[in-house]
Design a protein that fits this description.
single chain, 302 residues, alpha/beta, 11 strands, 39% helix, binds nicotinamide-adenine-dinucleotide
């Protein structure tokens, strides 16, 4: 059996088209567009490439996109003052601080200073609490888990009553996706188990999963014999395992591998996400969706 591929690149296009349509409609009816500011401190090359991608996507969707680059030696006070400025700016609906920040700045302090109603990353404790309560309380589900849930739902996988096993308990993937899948409602209503480095029988838990979400950051951790035949496998892991010369550009690029032994797993699973091209493209997509949602909350039409 060969599993159906769940392609993040295709699902991304569908969602971005939906967002674009909605942005046009809101602009016509209310005369406003979503405003997203991206604050980048310093010149970390990986951060620059993430931010560039975010800006490009926001531009394509017709957002009011503000790029605020700050020097590496900006003080914590100055950065807090900048956040305060954007918190008060009515044209801005989403504030994004690109991580990591330089060592002299307390990341937690900065992220907690963002107005929770503009925290489109969904990392502020208020939004974590809202997510835990669920239902209409939820404002901004964190982007990677929100992308995972969209992929599961849009590929037609039944979540109601499904055994979901999440490998990994990080605050940005494992814990929030587990929390989202136990909620009452469509795309959830699952029975969730979270496994981690101290779990006794990792393989035994994984084998029971109708939906297996793997976010460990360990290449090839999940073996094919851990997968229940027909299961939906979502591989969140992005691991650099080497370098190669790109055929397209002739430049050196990283070889990326997921946390699942893909070639063998696809013969057992019912559906599976590839790495790259699976969960990866969904994160920025959901960030855009959250920014639109923030404007809709402001307009009272969410
Ligand atoms: P993390 O390091 O914060 O957490 C990893 C979790 O996996 C930990 O809770 C740990 O207990 C668990 N774990 C690690 N090794 C394990 C093992 N051998 N057995 C069982 N559990 C184990 O990582 P993270 O931020 O959650 O990211 C996980 C992976 O997902 C990484 O590869 C990261 O690059 C990737 N990621 C991708 C996206 C995306 O595609 N958009 C977003 C976030 C993270």
């Amino acid at each position: 059996m060969t599993a159906k591929l769940i392609k993040g690149t295709e699902i991304r296009e569908k969602i971005l088209n939906e967002v674009e349509e909605e942005v046009k409609k809101i602009k016509e009816e209310h005369g406003v567009v979503p405003g997203l500011v991206t604050i980048l401190v310093g010149e970390n090359p990986a951060s620059i490439s993430y931010v560039t991608l975010k800006i490009k996507t926001a531009d394509r969707l017709g957002f009011n996109e503000v790029q605020d680059n700050q020097p590496e030696d900006i003080s914590e006070e100055e950065l807090l003052a900048l956040i305060d400025k954007y918190n008060k700016d009515d044209a801005i609906h989403g504030i994004l601080v690109q991580l990591p920040l330089p060592k002299h700045i307390d990341e937690k302090k900065i992220l907690n200073a963002i107005d929770p109603d503009k925290d489109v990353d969904g990392f502020h404790p208020v939004n974590v609490g809202r997510l835990m309560i669920g239902g209409s309380e939820v404002r901004f589900p964190p982007c990677t888990p929100a992308g995972i849930q969209e992929m599961i739902v849009r590929s037609g996988v039944e979540t109601e009553g499904a055994e979901v096993v999440v490998v990994g308990r990080s605050n940005i993937v494992g814990k929030p996706i587990a929390n989202m899948m136990i909620q009452k409602g469509p795309g959830a209503n699952s029975t969730v188990t979270v496994v981690h480095t101290r779990t006794k029988d990792l393989a035994g838990h994984c084998k029971r999963a109708d939906i297996l979400v793997v976010a460990a950051g360990v290449p090839g951790l999940v073996k094919p014999e851990w997968i229940k035949p027909g299961a939906c496998v979502i591989d969140v892991g992005v691991n650099r395992v080497g370098e190669k010369i790109s055929e397209k550009t002739g430049k050196k690029v990283a070889i990326l591998k997921g946390d699942v032994d893909f070639d063998a797993a696809k013969e057992i699973a019912g559906s599976i996400t590839p790495v790259p091209g699976g969960v990866g493209p969904m994160t920025i997509t959901m960030l855009m969706k959250n920014t639109l949602k923030s404007l809709k909350f402001r307009l009272g039409i969410a």
